[in-house]
Amino acid sequence: MRGRASGGGGGAGADGPLPGRGPSGDRARHPHRRPHPLREPEGGGRRPHRQRRGRARSVRASHRRGRLRYRHHPRRHLRAGRVPGRRHRARGGGRPRRPLRPSRAAAAGGAGRAPPRHRPQHGAVDPVRCAVRHRCPRRWHGGAHGRRARPAHGGRHRRAERADRSLLPQRRAPRAVAHPVRAASRVREEPGVSPPYRYDVTRSAASLHDEFGGLAPGTQTATTVSVAGRVMLRRVQGKLAFATLQDGTGRVQLFAPAAGTPRFDDFCDLSIGDWVGVTGEVITTRRGELSVKVTDWVVLAATRRSFPDKWHGIADVDTRYRQRYVDLWASDDARSTALARSRVLALTRRWLDERGFVEVETPVFHPIPGGATARPFTTHHDALDLDLYLRIAPELYLKRLVVGGMERVYEIARVFRNEGLSTRHNPEFTMLELYQAYADYTDMMAVVEELVVHLATTLCGTTRLTYDGRPLDLEPPWPRATMVELIEQHAGVRVDLSSPVDELRRICEDRGVHVEAGWGPGKLVLELYEKTTEAQLWGPVFVCDYPQEVSPLARDHREVPGMVERFEVIAAGRELANAFSELTDPDEQRRRFEDQAALRGGGDEEAMAVDADYLRALEYGLPPTGGLGLGIDRLVMLLTGTTAIRDVILFPTLRPEQGE
RNA sequence: GCGCCUCUAGCUCAACGGCAGAGCAACGGACUCUUAAUCCGCAGGUUCUGGGUUCGAAUCCCAGGGGGCGCACCA
User: Which of A174, A457, A473, A554 has a CB 3.0–4.6 Å from the CB of A316, allowing a cystine?
Assistant: First the structure.
C-alpha cells in the first residue's frame, strides 16, 4: 500500500549547473516559459527568443511573440508590403475531388497541369472583400497573414480567437506520423562511404561557453577544438554559412566561410537534424557570438526525416511522448526533465547510501502479488507452467530482507498496476521503498522530510517551490495531523472508529460520499477522508494514523485502538509518500491476510492474498521496523513543476500507434 | 467503460454552407557576420474514413477511426 504516489510535471533541474547552461548555453532558452526554481536563472540568455520549446504553450502566446518580434524587425516594412503568393491547383473546371498531380496527369497522357482558370492579380480583386487590412486586397487568403500580423478585429478576430483556443496543446489532435521519411536528403553519406566509426570530441558546447564565454566580438583564440552534435539551425549567406550545433550539453554556433571550409557547398546543404563532427578555431563573430570556425567537418549521421518546426517544436503532445528521441532535441523541457529525474535518482541513492542503506533488487515476477492493494498484470512462465504477476510493490520482499538481517535496505523499484491512465497515473511507475530496523513511523517522517528537503535544496536551490501556480514550501518541519483531525477540520464532523457503522455510513452519505455494503468503520472513515478532505490538502503535511481495517501491513497504533501507525505525505495536493511502523507479529499478520482474502473472495480484485512464505519469514522474527514508500515520478513532478506524469516518464504507456 | 472536445500541406495554423490558403520546412536561385537570417521563385491537399442533408460540404447531421481532457477505475 505504499508508494502509490507517482506523478508528472515538467521542469529542469540539477545539482549544479546542467550541461549547456553556460553563459551562452542559455541563449536558446525562452524567457516566457513558466518560471520555476529548478530552472537555471535567465541571466545568461543574451538572445532568448531563439528557440521555442514544443511545450505546452498556447499558440496565441507565440503569435503574440511573433508580433512583438516583427514589430521591431528592421525589415518589417519589406515584410509587411509583401503579399504572399497565391497557390492554384491545376483544375479544368468544376470541382474535382481528386486533383491531378502533375505526374499523374502526365502518366494519363494529359496536357499536364491545366492553366489556372482564374488567376487573380494582387490588387485586381475587389479590395472591399478583404476586411483585414488594405495591404491585402484579397479575401480568400484565409486571414492567414501569418503570426506576424494576425488581424485583430471584427468577426474574423473572434474566429481567430476561437481557433487559437482550440489550438491549445492539450486539445490538439495528434497525428500518428508526424515526420515522414524525406524523399531525399540534401547531404547523403557519400555513396559507398559510410560515416566514421568514431569521432574525437575535444569540447562540449557547454565547456566552450564555460571556457571562452565573455570574449570580445571579433576575437580569434588560435585554439582548435572538435565538437559534435546535431545541426539545429542553418543560416547560409552566400559565401558564408552559419549553423547552430547542439550536443548533449547545449548549443554552439558554427562559422563557415567559403574560403577555408572544405566542401563548402555540402556544408551549406546540411539538413536540420544531421549529426556532424566539426573541427575548427574558437572565435567570436563580429556580433560577439562564440563560434567554431570550421576547418574540417564530417557528417556523422544524416537524418532522413524532417525535424520539427524549428520555431514551434513539437506541439503535438502525443508525438512528443511517442517520439521522445525527437522531443529531446526539440524541447528543452524534455531534456531538462529527463536530467532532473536522473539527478533525483542519483542524489537519492547517494543520500541513502551515506546513511547506511543498502540498495537491493527484488523480483519483478511475483507468484503472489502483495504489498499493496492494486490489480496486477499477469504473465506466464512457460517452462514452469506458472502464472506470475508483475509486482505491484516490493514491500514483502524487502521486509524479508530485514528478517534476513539487512537492517537498512531500499529499492528503487519499477512497479506495475493494471489501472487506467491519467495525468497522475502510468501503469508502470517508480517507487522508492526503504526499510529501517529498530525504527518506527516517526523515524520515517524524519527520513522523508530530510530526503525531500535535501533534493529540493540541491536541485531547486530552495524549499520554496511553486507548483501548478501555487506556492509549496517544503521548509521543515512539516505539519502533522491525524486523519480524524483533518476530517473534522475539512468535513466538519468528528468521526470515531468506535461509532456504530450505521452512523458512519450516514455521515458519509450526508456528504455525498458513495458507500458500499460490507464496508467497516475503517473503510468508511478512509473513504470520508479521501472524498472530502484529501483534495483540500495542499501540504506538505503528514496525515497520520490510518484505520487498521485498510492497512493490512501496518502495526497497531500504540495508543489509539483500531488505528495503525501509518502516515501519508500530501504535497501539492497529491500523495507523495506512505509509511508505517511495520506489522511484525506473524499471527496478527495472518489474521489480516485472512481478512483480505475474505474480501478477495467477495470479489475485491485488489485485496491481498495470503502469502504463506512471508508469514513464515515473520515467524523467524522481524524486528521493529519502519518502512517508507515514496513515488519517484510524483517527486520529480513536484521538483520540476510538471503536472503530467507522462512528462517525467521518458516512454510513457501509450496506445499502440495506428498505421504507418 | 461514460461524457465533452478535436482531426485541413511534412510542421504550426487559416478559410459565413459558395475559388482550400499562409508561415516554417522541402526544392531552385541571390547573398561574406547571420542567429526563427533575409530576399526572389517553384512545388506541395482523398480537408481522418464512410454515409447523409444540400444546387453546392473542410464547414451541417449520423456512424466509424485516431487523439486530448474530465469522470469512473485506481493509492
Answer: A174
